[in-house]
Amino acid sequence: MLGEQLEAREELVETEDDREAMNLEERFEILDNLGSGAYATVYRARDRSRGGEVVALKKVYVREDREIGIPQFIMREVANLKRLSTPGHRKDPHIVRLLDVQSAEGRYRNEQIFYLVFEHMDQDLDQFIRACPSPGMNETIIRDFLAQILDGVDWMHVNNIVHRDLKPQNILVSCDGKKLKIADLGLSRSIGSNVVLSTQVVTQWYRAPEVLLHSSYSKPVDVWSVGCIFAEMIRGRPLFAARRKGEKHQLEEIFSIIGTPTTAQWPVESSITVDQFVQFKAKPWLQLLPEASDDAQDLLSQMLQFQPLQRVSTKDSLHHPYITSKASQDEVEEEEEEEERRVTRHQTPPKTAHTPPTRVLIWTSPTLLIPESSQTQPPPPVLHSRGGRGQV
């Protein structure tokens, strides 16, 4: 914990650059309110110190004794984001980028406002899923999105960081619907192999059984949450949507689908006992998700195992046939597109006295060629945002 605090303080000091000379209220032009929580409000804003770049601005309001210093949850988020942005073997870690951190005096006594500036993404995965017309997301998009989410979570796990709050609202989607970034690391923690952490993590529907049972937990809690997101992309609605709040009701919802565990599978340290629950039999995934492929059902069943140690890891998930078949297909498509671009760059149509040369314009998709006579570009895909969702 001390290491995290020192690292975060260092990061905060490093970001106090020449932008500090500009008044923070003058620096940002607020464009939209993206969402509010107990301690923070997230805005879409224009950063004048960055040439008018549109950013996601997270304003965190802290009222406490100044001698306490920087709140731990801010230090934790900043330190973990800095750690994850350190160059590694990942070309794109699929983690939202933290651009800057600043602080200022608040309006009230003992109030401080922390400004966390993030790259802006146009919508979250929850909005994307809801905006998809019937019959919903196709398998190609689902497979691609899942691979990106797994890659981002795996990068966190490689760095011994557990997100603890993965849900569609915390997965951001680019305007073209192709790039995903994991956001909101406010609850993320650096951990050892298996420790007891607080249970105030993750929206109830995406919470792993071991968290609901107040047992020790580690990286597999994120895999469970990703499994819930995976199922939601397939179904178009949450898989474990308990109608009533509370840990027991959520566990009953889970057991009604995956089956009630045996006494031998039940964690011994839990104060809740298995005999408090109805004995459900597991429902076949083919019955629950008939539209999903066999590989998709197999991977999902491995992600949503009751026992954490039986759950597939992010690394192994990325090597599952459901994902690797997508990777192989992408490699072929990339090679074909690169060859087409190479031919386009080096080929010049023959000139004649009666036929003027045709100039070729390349649109956002490298395989779409538009002649000069029809240069009007088709609009990019419109992904309607419902608003009111936090970006980070």
Automatic annotation (TrEMBL):
Which transformation does this protein catalyse, written as a reaction?
L-seryl-[protein] + ATP = O-phospho-L-seryl-[protein] + ADP + H(+); L-threonyl-[protein] + ATP = O-phospho-L-threonyl-[protein] + ADP + H(+)
- Which parts of the sequence belong to the Protein kinase domain? 28-323
GO-annotated molecular function:
ATP binding; cyclin binding; cyclin-dependent protein serine/threonine kinase activity
Q: Which SUPFAM superfamilies match?
A: Protein kinase-like (PK-like) (SSF56112)
Per the UniProt entry, the Enzyme Commission number(s) are 2.7.11.22
Q: Which InterPro entries match?
A: CDK, Kinase-like_dom_sf, Prot_kinase_dom, Protein_kinase_ATP_BS, Ser/Thr_kinase_AS
Alphabetically sorted, this entry's keywords are:
ATP-binding, Kinase, Nucleotide-binding, Serine/threonine-protein kinase, Transferase
Task: Note whether Transcription occurs among the keywords.
Answer: no
Quote the record's binding site residues for ATP: 58
Q: Which Gene3D superfamilies match?
A: Phosphorylase Kinase, domain 1 (3.30.200.20), Transferase(Phosphotransferase) domain 1 (1.10.510.10)
Tell me the Gene Ontology biological-process terms attached to this UniProt entry.
G1/S transition of mitotic cell cycle; regulation of G2/M transition of mitotic cell cycle; regulation of gene expression; signal transduction
**Segments of skewed composition (Acidic residues):** 330-339
Q: Polar residues: which segments have biased composition?
A: 364-376
GO CC: one term? nucleus
SMART domains cross-referenced by the UniProt entry: S_TKc
| Pfam families per the UniProt record, alphabetical | Pkinase (PF00069)
Region Disordered, as annotated, extends over 317-392
Annotated family = Belongs to the protein kinase superfamily. CMGC Ser/Thr protein kinase family. CDC2/CDKX subfamily.
Query: What is the name of this protein?
Result: cyclin-dependent kinase
